[in-house]
Here is the input.
Amino acid sequence: MNQAKPRYQQLKDLIIGRISSGELQPADRVPSENELVESMRVSRMTANRALRELNDEGYVERVAGRGTFVSDYRSQSHLLEVHNIADEIARRGHTHTSCVIRRSPQHARGEVAKALHVQQGTDVFHLLLVHAENGIPIQLEDRHVLASFAPDCLQQDFETVTPSAYLTSISPLQEAEQVVRASLPNRAVQEHLDMKDGEASLVVIRRTWSNGRPVTFARLHHPGSRYELTGHYTPPGTSRSTSSDVVQLEELRQ
Amino acid sequence: MNQAKPRYQQLKDLIIGRISSGELQPADRVPSENELVESMRVSRMTANRALRELNDEGYVERVAGRGTFVSDYRSQSHLLEVHNIADEIARRGHTHTSCVIRRSPQHARGEVAKALHVQQGTDVFHLLLVHAENGIPIQLEDRHVLASFAPDCLQQDFETVTPSAYLTSISPLQEAEQVVRASLPNRAVQEHLDMKDGEASLVVIRRTWSNGRPVTFARLHHPGSRYELTGHYTPPGTSRSTSSDVVQLEELRQ
DNA sequence: TGTACTAGCCTGTATATACAACTTGAAGAG
DNA sequence: CTCTTCAAGTTGTATATACAGGCTAGTACA
Here is the structure.
């Protein structure tokens, strides 16, 4: 079962490990090819392949003549771009504000326990907040977080740092699953988002993994008249941009 | 401006060209590394890099001991998986039926002309059909196709081959853009999809490019109570599956 | 002081070579 | 005829080497 991994993969795993453990921070310098040749006893071509693939995959950025540097996950594509609504709003030059409605410890049950793969009654934190763009509410975030993953969750000031940004600062998010639905909001959602009677809502249900297990489960409600999801698909190989082979989902205001 | 491309990239472009021109069909054998060494006068490592990257990008599949083969775009991830509702339904073991409501030549104007980047009055074809899963309507497809791209569009039997499948058979789709909205359907949409009063609809507006220009523009309406979009995100490098670094969007019935 | 230049490091690419593991088909043994 | 074995071709990986080109810091020079 435990097949010996190729050496270039071992190198990749090693560096990814240093990044996700926090030993290597964004913009930090990664050992150069020649340094890896010496310390790891590999040939330069093997080190080159490891670093080149990490570059293709967005973990690091390489500059000829300077070196290899850890990518800044926060301003990067992949998962995180999808997650932080404050960044999305800032990108369109608007101001983001948010208002915490509830922030409390809970015991997981029913849907939440099932989504997080934990026993009924496991400690979780429940967050409920409204995000606004230029003062207009556009997202009601209803999130459950595994308490063991983020013990100091309730001490955070989520009006300055979004839960999404906080969670990614703890540990890089590694996998996510989302479902998009259209529905009529219940009374509470409708009022929090200032929606008219009969207005449809766009609901994104997102579950995020870290280190192989789900750690947070969120329902994101948006007013259908003021919100949409846009995606852009590019086939692999046509563009040389670093994120050409991922789908970028962005929330855009109409 | 016109920098000489590296040789491995030239090899990739050459093979991609043969695939998209139709010279190489899905499951066809691609020249082996050693054949490329002889015919293209490159070293085996250069040929290896070209083929390996084409494999990583999903164009081809490589089997040690056998060779390199063109991927089957139709049953593959990337763009096409997203597009064909008949395949999605078949994948869950259900039966797909569709009913053509309208099929007519038109002159593009307004939103359609703008979306397709053509002058007002340009010839397009308008298709309107309902897709059903096990007899239950789940998608109203309202599509405009550039007449110059698919001249024999009106002769097709879209009840056996979906417009999406037909269009991809003409030319590989190269780029797509989509917007997801939640809204209340108008009377016509509501009736075609057998929706209850006050039921929200999930609308996907999709524009697809081929050879650098938009060729089709579709509005896909779904009943909110019976339909959802699911997406799964995997970061690059953790999984070895061929489509690990793309987001797969699938339509799933609740 | 300030400018020009160069040495040294870095990445990017290309080649030649080698060995391992896998697949297939053909030759040979029974 | 059937089974075994083996050779040839294929991909996968690893190494050593080479040269080109970008970047930077420090030195030499004016």
User: Anything to note?
Assistant: Chain A has two domains: 7-71, 75-253. Residues 32-34, 48, 51-52, 62-68 of chain A lie near DNA strand C (CB under 10 Å from a C1').
